Amino acid sequence: MTRSHEPGPREVAALHPEIPLFILLKMDLQRRGLRLTPAALEAVQDPLYDYSRSYVIYGQGDYVHTGHTAPKNAPGPLLLRDGTSVLVLAGAEYNNSYTVDHQDGRFLLYDGDEFLDEVDFSPRPDFYGKRTSRGTPMESIATARPQRIDINPYRFCHFWEGGNQCRYCAYFTDVTASKALADGKFPRQVDPEDIFETVREALKEPGRFSQIMLTSGADPRGEHTFDFEVDRQIEALQAIGRNFQGRRFASELIGCGYDKRQLQRLHDETGLTSYCPDIEVWDPKLFDWICPGKAKYNGRDWWIRSALDAVDIFGPGNVYTNAVAGVELAQPHGFKTLDEALASHFEACEFFAKHGVVYLSLVWIPWRGSQFHGQPQPPLEFYARLIKGLRDIKRAYGLTSVNDDYRHCGNHGDSDLERIA
Amino acid sequence: MASLPDEVLELLRDPASVKLLATVDPDGTPHLAIRPSLTVLENGELAFAEELDSSELSQDLVHAIWRDRRVTVGVSLGATVWQIRARLWRCVITGPLLKRFLLLARAERGPDADISTVWVLRADDVRDDSPAVRRLEDASRRPNAGSHLDRASLVRREA
Predict the structure, then answer these.
(1) Which of A22, A208, A421 shows the shortest C-beta gap to B94?
(2) Does residue A86 sit in the same domain as residue A155?
(3) Which among B26, B93, B99 has the least Cβ separation from residue A146?
(4) Final residue of a structural domain among A69, A94, A121
(5) Domain residue ranges in chain B
(6) Per-residue pLDDT tens for A130-148?
(7) Complex ipTM, two decimals?
(8) Residues A302-350: pLDDT tens digits?
(9) Exposed/middle/buried for A76, CB within 10 Å: 0-12, 13-18, 19+?
(10) Taking CB atoms and an 8 Å limit, are B99 and A419 in contact across chains?
């Protein structure tokens, strides 16, 4: 086993003592990936941990590489001792991965031969393994983060038609495997009744979920751009809403940039509480290069306007936008220095914060199925400087990431830092 | 992890005991909280439920686990007082332990009761802080220090 020669979490923590080691470790786990020893892989086959069919839709390729000839089921998100969740695909090694071993009933995290800490995995939710009344496996309808249900009502991104997908994206590149794991019941559009029944079943488990997130592949079709997509989201949200007594339920829609009429419909016709059109890349030229589908439908200014308009409808602090931090350094057109990239992020965060929109970063992983596969990632220290700067800007504007915090999303080092006000 | 005497284990499991947590915030200001759910688990770790992430205690506990700072647990019943210095070991936001504490909270406070987190602590050291025990210890270490001379056990009273 080899170790990275880049400064790791401990070295970066020494340079940035205000950032907890747990959060640095989480971001480095996201950067470098995670492999399971044979003992750990066997341990996660236990019914407490076995996430079975999930994750495949994210398109990162085969699920577990451990030298086994037969595929094994993967665990859920990794949990650090402070409650930080790490959305890392255990087994999809991509960059000098960390290792989890299993000894004496405990999961132990290593970097090479160096023991780091005891860790755990998010437990399998009770609804996994059950079927809807139409016979659809429920884990093909919804997946579980530590406290969140994730649902993809539409499992195809039309930006991929004509090669307009975002260049870092690998979503839905494992459709064949996903179909097989869902017993062939993997249509592009999910039946709203399957969504209703799956959520109903999920809510029977005490204390397992406190938020529901929807996201889908982009579908620009319709009389107005994205009308088909909005209709579908409304249908899914209404199906979910039938499980609740009140009008609103804690929820987030990560969707395309919608116009004001579409946003108003989402607010008025469903119980949705927050909306997130992802800007992905702030710099105008890089946005056009890296996100050609978004540039085509209907351009950077449209996506920004959508986030700002949504604040009028959902309220300040209930609208988010994500940046895939690091892709702005992709070559040949990306920034040449880390300082330029950081300045761009901070400019974006300040702009959105002024308008009540929460700007969040996540760690870029050059997935195998993406056009950017093989590009180098920025060093961990880049992410340390980034999350501290973003946290400071949002704090100055009184913004916090209630819908995307450590317990609901788990993808953002900057919102993890908000645990201490 | 220090093992706890049987008397402390019984006190921690006794619903009648008063259970306190002392923490400090990032600025060093102390904070005291009463948490009746505090108990000892089968493996000897301490655990209690916290309702809100935004509570002062939650914030202090996050600070403590991030910075590897200790907290102090006090458990008392009548004249018996024990003090445990402990490290934050785990912040549990999902799984069987969270479910167990949530179901207990709902059994006690009704089906709408909720918790956000179960905090798990590991004891570093424990001491009997009961006044009678402290007095005896002090008397054996410093036999002539600090006691007022007019105490009934010292002064010869006129008949």
Answers:
(1) A208
(2) no
(3) B93
(4) A121
(5) 6-140
(6) 999 999 999 889 999 999 9
(7) 0.92
(8) 999 999 999 999 999 999 999 999 999 999 999 999 999 999 999 999 9
(9) buried
(10) no
